[in-house]
Design the sequence.
């Protein structure tokens, strides 16, 4: 059985932070930082020249030359088996959604504590998804809920949840579903309470982990569900 360290690549234009992350990662366990890059383009070039690609890339969102989103697109295209944990200084929900749709497995704020960074690395490497709101086994509880077809989530809320995985604003979602902004806000607040989630990006992570919809097709699938429901109502 092969016994090797997990290969990790770091991409961040702040050298001091990158060095600190490298030292921290080496204290976590059998990890080896094999690539350090100043930006996305630098990272891609170094991966292409390496004997083997990294198992995981820790990727900053905001970088010069090529940012985290563009880099993730190329990583998914050229090295689909390499996982990505994205770091950001800001909790921008649309950034999270875009990155998840392009295959990122986790999202973490740079203000996170070292033990949370370690949990995020472990989760992503174990083929799980990581989001700051989804800790302490919450993901598994959500999956269990969906497998039991928990009646607390209505079909309209499920459709709304699928549309949340797109880049539509809440206003746009309301227009697609033919509902008022107030009704859409009600669905959002209801799901926040039921799922103990506080943000739209948290809802996206729930939908992804529970397997409700493939993120790349979330908007189309959600609207198809709405269409089927409307057709059923007409027949009645």
Sequence:
């Amino acid at each position: 059985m092969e016994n090797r360290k997990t290969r990790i690549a770091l991409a961040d234009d702040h050298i001091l932070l990158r060095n600190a992350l490298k030292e921290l990662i080496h204290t976590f366990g059998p990890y080896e930082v094999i690539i350090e890059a100043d930006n996305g383009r630098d990272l891609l070039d170094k991966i292409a020249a390496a004997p083997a690609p990294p198992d995981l890339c820790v990727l900053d969102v905001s970088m010069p030359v090529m940012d985290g989103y563009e880099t993730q697109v190329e990583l998914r295209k050229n090295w689909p088996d390499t996982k990505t944990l994205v770091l950001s200084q800001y909790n921008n929900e649309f950034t999270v959604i875009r990155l998840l749709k392009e295959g990122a497995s986790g999202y973490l704020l740079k203000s996170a504590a070292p033990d949370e960074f370690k949990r995020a690395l472990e989760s992503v490497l174990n083929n799980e998804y990581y989001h700051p709101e989804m800790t302490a086994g919450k993901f598994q509880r959500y999956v269990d809920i969906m497998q039991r077809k928990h009646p607390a989530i209505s079909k309209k809320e499920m459709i709304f949840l699928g549309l949340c995985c797109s880049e539509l604003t809440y206003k746009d979602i309301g227009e697609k579903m033919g509902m008022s902004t107030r009704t859409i806000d009600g669905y959002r607040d209801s799901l926040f309470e039921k799922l103990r989630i506080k943000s739209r990006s948290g809802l996206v992570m729930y939908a992804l982990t529970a397997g409700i919809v493939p993120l790349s097709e979330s908007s189309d699938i959600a609207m198809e569900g709405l269409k089927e429901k409307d057709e059923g109502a007409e027949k009645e």
About this structure: Strands lie at 6-11, 31-37, 56-60, 83-88, 106-109. The radius of gyration is 19 Å.
